[in-house]
Design a protein that fits this description.
Organism: Pseudovibrio japonicus
Number of helices: 12
Shape: globular
Strand content: 15-25%
Distance between the termini: 33 Å
Structural class: alpha/beta
Keywords: Methyltransferase, Repeat, TPR repeat, Transferase
Strand order of the largest sheet: 1-4-3-2-5-6-10-9
GO molecular function, one term: methyltransferase activity
Helix content: 25-40%
InterPro entries: Methyltransf_12, SAM-dependent_MTases_sf, TPR-like_helical_dom_sf, TPR_2, TPR_rpt
Protein name: S-adenosylmethionine-dependent methyltransferase
Order of helices and strands: EHHHHHHEHEHEHEHEHEEHEE
Length: 289
């Protein structure tokens, strides 16, 4: 249980936050690296970010992602847990306003719209992976009687808890959560704005398959880039330091893990600096029992 909130549960996959960092030295090193990156001095920035990683191996600032974006390192398998947790905890109190009002994010409402148009359900149990402040839980509130939310950022989960949307809330990394042997499976699993913080998706999709009911529905969003940018890569770190995935990669993994695609739609996931961020909204059904 969380120390301050008995309604939110921690599990063994919860991120460990380091407390012995030299924050002053780390901030100085990170700001220097960031300044070099912004100045286009990528070789110098790369060395500076490597120094940041020496000071902070858990990578709270996402140096590994920035190195990949500059072409000075291979894309990591996912964004570092400490980075994602820190990033979202910092913005938890204003997250809804920023994401919805300023960035034009409406993917949870798109999910609901697709579910209704495809006449899916009724559903009994929802698993909201990367639930954040509960935007998907709110959008689907009256469609599912029992709702479980999971997110790596405790501050975000606390905001979701205040909304009284979910029956169960957990703090932890979603792939690790999916490894927990639950007595009951879920017949609706959603993951909105989760894939942009993951590179490799094999373990994640396999975990969803292990936890979904036969004929259950898996709804998720992803960000993407033009084919001439992605080339033959399954994923890469995009302009705004999130992961973009090739449609072929997503399709192939769904088929491999036992899902059939009910609907795959090109969407604008959000806006960044006034530019639309392209992506996909996917609704899939689990065919294996």
């Amino acid at each position: 249980m969380c120390k301050e909130n008995p309604h939110i549960q921690l599990y063994s996959g919860s991120p460990v936050i380091m407390t012995n960092l030299d924050n002053e030295a780390l901030a100085e090193a990170y700001n220097r690296a960031l300044d070099l990156e912004k100045a286009g001095k990528f070789d110098e920035a790369a060395e500076a970010y490597k120094h940041v990683l020496e000071l902070d191996p858990e990578d709270h600032g996402g140096a590994a992602v920035r190195l990949a974006r500059m072409g000075k390192g291979s894309a990591p398998a996912k964004a570092p847990d400490a980075y994602v947790s820190t990033l979202f905890d910092q913005h938890a109190e204003v997250f809804d306003m920023v994401l919805v009002d300023q960035l034009g994010y409406s993917v949870p409402l798109m999910v609901r719209d697709k579910i209704e148009k495809l006449e899916l359900g009724p559903f009994k149990r929802l698993l909201d992976l990367g639930c954040g402040t509960g935007l998907s839980g709110e959008a689907l509130h009256d469609l599912v009687p029992h709702k479980t939310g999971v997110d790596i950022a405790e501050g975000m989960v606390e905001v979701a808890d205040e909304k009284e949307i979910y029956d169960d809330l957990y703090v932890g990394e979603v792939v690790e959560f999916l490894k927990v042997d639950e007595e009951e499976r879920w017949d609706l699993i959603v993951a909105t704005d989760v894939l942009p913080y993951m590179g490799q998706l094999e373990e994640f999709f396999a975990g969803v398959a292990e936890n979904i009911e036969p004929k259950g529905v898996f709804a998720f969003s992803s960000e993407t880039l033009p084919a001439d940018v992605l080339g033959d890569q399954n994923f890469m770190v995009g302009k705004y330091h999130r992961f973009a995935h090739a449609e072929s990669y997503v399709r192939g993994l769904l088929e491999k893990t036992g899902f059939s695609i009910l609907d795959l739609t090109s969407i604008i996931v959000r806006y960044e600096q006034g530019e639309p961020v392209p992506g996909h909204l996917v609704i899939a059904a689990f065919d294996k029992g």
